[in-house]
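request received
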Amino acid sequence: MRKVLTVVLALAVVSLFSVLLAQAKDTSFAQIERGRHLVDAGDCVACHTDAAGKPFAGGRPIETPFGVIYSPNITPDRETGIGAWSDEDFYRAMHTGVRPDGARLYPAFPYPYFTKMTRDDVMAIRAYLNTLPATKNPRKQADLTWPLNHRVFMRGWNMLFFKPGTFHPDPNKSAEWNRGAYLVEGPGHCGACHTPKNDLGADKTSEALQGGSVQNWFAPKIAGNMRDGTGAWSVDDIAEYLKTGRNSHSGAAGLMAEVVADSTSKLPDADLRAIAAYIKDVDGGPAKAPQPLAQDDKMMVAGQAIYADTCAACHGGDGKGVAGMFPPLAHDANAQQADPTTVVRVILQGARTVATDKRPTPVAMPAFDWKLKDDEVAAVATYIRNSWGNAAPAVGPNKVKSLRDSLKKGLNDGT
Amino acid sequence: MASAARKLPPVDVVLVGFGWTGAILGQELTDAGLNVLALERGGWRDTSTDFAVTFAQDELRYMWRHALFEEPARETLTFRNAPSETALPMRHLGSFLPATGVGGAGIHWNGQNWRFLPSDFVARSHNEQRYGKLSDDMTVQDWGVTYDELEPYYDKFEYLCGIAGKAGNLNGQIVAGGNPFEGARKRDYPNPPLDMVYAPTLFEAAARETGHKPFPCPAANMSRPYTNPLGVQLGPCTYCGFCEKFGCGNYSKSSPQTTIHPVLLRKKNFELRTECNVLRVLKDSAGKRATGVVYIDAQGNELEQPAEMVVLCAFAHHNPHLMMLSDIGKRYDPKTGEGVIGKNYAYQIVSGVDVFFDDKIMNPFVGAGALGVGIDEYNGDNFDHSGLGFIGGGYLACWQTNGRPIEYHPVPKDTPKWGGKWKAAVAKNYLTSLSISTHGAVMSHRNNYLDLDPTYRNAYGQPLLRLTFDYTDNEHKMSDYLTDRATDIAKAMKAREVHAKPRQGHYDIAPYQTTHNTGGAIMGTDPKTSAVNKFLQSWDLHNLFVMGTAVYPQNPGYNPTGTVGALTYWAAEAIKTQYLKNPGPLVQA
Amino acid sequence: MARRIDLSRRQLLSASVLVGSSVALDRAQARSISGEVPWEPDEANKPDIVQPGPSEFFTPEEGQFVDAAVSRLIPKDELGPGAREAGVTTFLDRQLAGAYGKGSDWYMQGPWEKGTPTQGYQARRNPAELYRAAIKAIDDYCGGKYGGKKFAALTPDQQDEVLKGVEGGDVKLKDADGKTFFKLLLQNTTEGFFSDPIYGGNRDMVGWKLIGFPGAHYDYRPYVKKHNQKLGLEPVGIKGRPKWTPS
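response:
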């Protein structure tokens, strides 16, 4: 009998020890590092940090078409952060968009993308977040239009537009493609900005990565189209852009400059190349290039005069710019988006490329809003969208005026 | 000197002023691991917000209303030609245009970037050896550092800036097309010369015809896109003609903003405080070490900033002014010739020759700050001065920097100053004229000096600096000689009319000439006759260094900025490799 | 005696050193800058653009004097409009009403001495005061010499005579420094005729058109090698030119 007891005890000790070992593995350096890497990929810090606040302590106002939401505190503080949440609570929030108290999260938190993440990855993120200093910062109430100010409404929204589910690799594609797909469709949540939304703010999944409006910017199409997508960029080009904020074609500014600074510049090259390989392979729909406006169109004539006098000194009379410094406008996909919001905004308020150690010069374009009238901005925007082989719809003065008005009112100006 | 101001946490290095020398030293000393704080009396300045392509081309605002320059209401100086006169305040800027704000005059300079001649550094011994003893009143001195010692640092500044030029002397080999008189350089300029407009090519042809060797002037205006050794990018110059006195709107003129700030300001061990005006340097009770500075912030609070090292990086004469206000070093007395602080103030003597054509179109508005062709036959001791009655010289150049009409509207001699005839002359000659400039040295003289004014005060209640300065016979003779040589070349151009405008009479503080003020804290080998040693270290306080043109014992013919850059790198190297290892005097007196 | 610099004492001074932190672009306030080159969108240290409207400085009589005087300095003739047509009076009016008129940047502390010819402007008055005093004094002088007529009512030849007299100092003005005033008036008139139209003068860029100056153009690279060629560039100001408007 004693022998059996000894064996049982021994087994219990061994299994207890294994459990302890397993727990030790779960909070290992490797897991925390993986979590940190995933938090970089997910760019959590950007939304969960207020301009004047501590990192990850929440409070940043996020503008949606339905009002303002304030990001929550995801530091381990027990009262005002997520320190009191269990691991299961955390997984449920990331995977299904449901809080521990059962309330629905708003999809300003991109759970429809994070649902694709594996449980291991979500736990790694948790492990990393647990290492952050616990910071007190109570949640600010959202300010949304009715009926969205009632979270219960989100149950209906989820029924229509959301299906939880982890990413399934495509066996017909390479490992690199699948890695890129996982990053883009999961933690990277690129479509949250770069995919158009329907009237209820859900992704138009049939138009994935074909461009979307966000906070008075237009995040361009990044599917693989040649003219207005990433088709003309090589994998190296895209990886360089994500790493340093610029390449010979373009420079990240506005919200994307933040993404590069806080997120993509920290990812390993292999991941950036994987993202590039994936997005270039995304079908961006039929290539229907509009006819470029005639050179003698009155907007083009005026635009050409304005361009020669004010833009050519950096962007060149030939639209070729200076590589890595003044982005070329000729054959620029960003300039040819159907929605001209980004072009008009950059002209009005200026823009600055992100500075990194490799490319430290933060070249900035000045603001033109005080200098050019609405019809002049519209003319020069139309001109650059239709010159040197570019073709895109003309811009009208009303578009310029309405953007000016929106920017005056806006909270998030995308710096 | 005790101070009642609130005391701040100490730093390793405090830099007074944040223009060219502040930026260079900030970058070098933070690389050495030091905590560096820069205090700038003016505000933050940067390209896209302060001199953007949308509004930089505003002649009234920047040239005439002085938007980037020092405000005399805050700080100015008093001026007289001779010790027998009473100095009066320079109530507006005129003759020279110092800056205020981050970047300093490095924002609004032309970009004319030179190396002094080897003989310039030994002006006294060289000239005495060749021509005999100089008069007692001519207080010219050797610098204590040689061209050869500075050569690698000239190179470093040129590559930092991306200077566009053509070497004339590569390791002793004279290269055609460059300046045959320049000191030997180890390698060519980092960028090729700018594309030349019409007027300098006419000068080039006439200069060749008259037996000279013209060359493209070295320019800190980019001839092509450039990435400097720090990884900072500059764009190509677009010849906008709003260079000197203006900030560059498209990152194509070398300045602290376009060459250093992007890298320096990212460093965790560097901090810049703007709107902080340093009032004085503090010394320990034994008067042997600087202990920091006292400054006043925009709210009017006086604050004490302790530091292990203090470097004076303000513009030119502001550095000796600060030394006087801080009671550092022995004040110069022109009567006895003793003392060093304030001694040997110098400037530049310039003149021009206007050339009027009927049939040649110059398009003067297509310009860049250092776009031009020059000749060096009459600079320094490049020619035999025997019997001429002066030493020193200058360079001649046909620059095309601008056609901004408030400043530039050349009219022939004897044209009325206003009215219908003036208007007609302006309209007729604007597009079809050019000018040859002479840019001459000023030798030091016992009665050209700086001290503190007994009557007038600045906005902080401190005595203004007093400037006593006039050209001497040496300068007039030399400048007339240069003007005559320029006239000879002008005549070879077969123009309709040549109008020489020699510099005449006393030095006048009102019309703009150059912002090349030098001296007052001169460098040398002997603490009795210099304020700093060859490494720009104060003889009096070993942890005080003085940058900029204040250290020039006299002012040679070229523009001074290239040498400011070289000396700053030279001093930085001495600090990093010698001083930090063993803080103390680097030269035994 | 030698004391090592304590390289182990690291103390970053700014409380606001966060990686990626930026600072507000308020130029009047002292700022601590560390960590990055500061920048905000939609920031521009832009010029003060003159708005059309009634006089802000000149009285109607002073305005008449100025109109008449600048018409003599840069007259309208067969070459084109003169200073008056170019709006120089409006330019001067706005300049004198603003910081320039007050001499805000100038050193205006006493004591006040006359000074030598090389010591520059030593007048006690700022430009606004100088204009006011000199215009009155000149009108008074004209009244005395020309039977009660103010400057504006004289013939052009008479006006030239008065101006030359003031310029040279032969005409002594009561309680005003005529030579200094004339120098300033001539300088300011040139400024008004040739400055960017946003300041109220150089209307329709007539000053620039007179001489062939293209104005606020910034990219001349296509023209650098066009030696000895008329370029025919339409002048453009900071706020544009007619061709900027779609029509």
